[in-house]
Amino acid sequence: MSAQLIRAAGGLVWREGPTGVEVALVHRPRYDDWSLPKGKLDRGEHPLAGACREVAEEAALRPVPGVRLPSVRYRVAGPGGSTDKVVDFWSMAAVDGAGFAPNDEVDQLRWVRLDQAPAALTDDDYLPVLAAFAALPRITATVLLVRHASAGRADAWQDADELRPLDESGVATAERLAALLPLFAPVRLLTATPLRCVQTIEPTARRLGLEPAPAPVFDEVGHDPLGAAARVRRLAERGGSSVVASQGGIIPATLDLLAHQDGVTVADASTPKGAVWVLSFADDRLAAADLLRP
């Protein structure tokens, strides 16, 4: 029997330095190496949540995640032999921190200019993570395009379809989203008209203390991907992070339109219920699109 895969997550944490973008490296005395902040996931922990937790624990920084970066896979030794370890990475803006204090796990935090970071890393396994980040344009906004969670079968609902609520599974998904979406530090919430869209982001709205604004352009009824894409771009132009709850009948067409206009490759724009497209923008141009499953 092969050993179980070890799952871990971390962040390429960046900030604006006096001479350009700097990234955070941590020194681990146990291995005497310089690495990106990362660590093993807790049982049942979402990789994004784990990545943010590890950055907070190892570097004493509050990160805001952005673009999904390449995962790193390598072999690690253990009592029963070697096994595979996969580390998922996100780019993360360093917003603030409680002040780094050396500890048994990490005894130094160092900010290194991006072009000097490859030479400062001990392990070459993480060079593709740095390279992917360096290839990105400066990200100025994030739009989180959320498909509503499960709402039962439409053919079993006797009332108006826009009044169909989330089912038990959908309610649980909405709560899981409320643990992930706030990590992006949203400053505005929008929702399509159907009740199931509103309910999908209600737990997130309560946690953030924000009131979702109605946005019928994201309704399936009327099916206006041109209008929806234009609204997404206007949100991006405002900067910061926005959450939009919408429907499966319009999200793929909207995403395909944005991706085609801006030359971004999206192999499959289909969106499972409760999933989130993390759309990263450089000004009003789409730079990356990553599917996040809660």
UniProtKB/TrEMBL annotation:
<dbReference type="InterPro" id="IPR000086">
    <property type="entry name" value="NUDIX_hydrolase_dom"/>
</dbReference>
<dbReference type="GO" id="GO:0004081">
    <property type="term" value="F:bis(5'-nucleosyl)-tetraphosphatase (asymmetrical) activity"/>
</dbReference>
<dbReference type="InterPro" id="IPR015797">
    <property type="entry name" value="NUDIX_hydrolase-like_dom_sf"/>
</dbReference>
<dbReference type="Pfam" id="PF00300">
    <property type="entry name" value="His_Phos_1"/>
</dbReference>
<dbReference type="GO" id="GO:0006754">
    <property type="term" value="P:ATP biosynthetic process"/>
</dbReference>
<protein>
    <submittedName>
        <fullName>NUDIX hydrolase</fullName>
    </submittedName>
</protein>
<feature type="domain" description="Nudix hydrolase">
    <location>
        <begin position="4"/>
        <end position="134"/>
    </location>
</feature>
<dbReference type="InterPro" id="IPR051325">
    <property type="entry name" value="Nudix_hydrolase_domain"/>
</dbReference>
<keyword id="KW-0378">Hydrolase</keyword>
<dbReference type="Pfam" id="PF00293">
    <property type="entry name" value="NUDIX"/>
</dbReference>
<dbReference type="GO" id="GO:0006167">
    <property type="term" value="P:AMP biosynthetic process"/>
</dbReference>
<dbReference type="InterPro" id="IPR029033">
    <property type="entry name" value="His_PPase_superfam"/>
</dbReference>
<dbReference type="InterPro" id="IPR013078">
    <property type="entry name" value="His_Pase_superF_clade-1"/>
</dbReference>
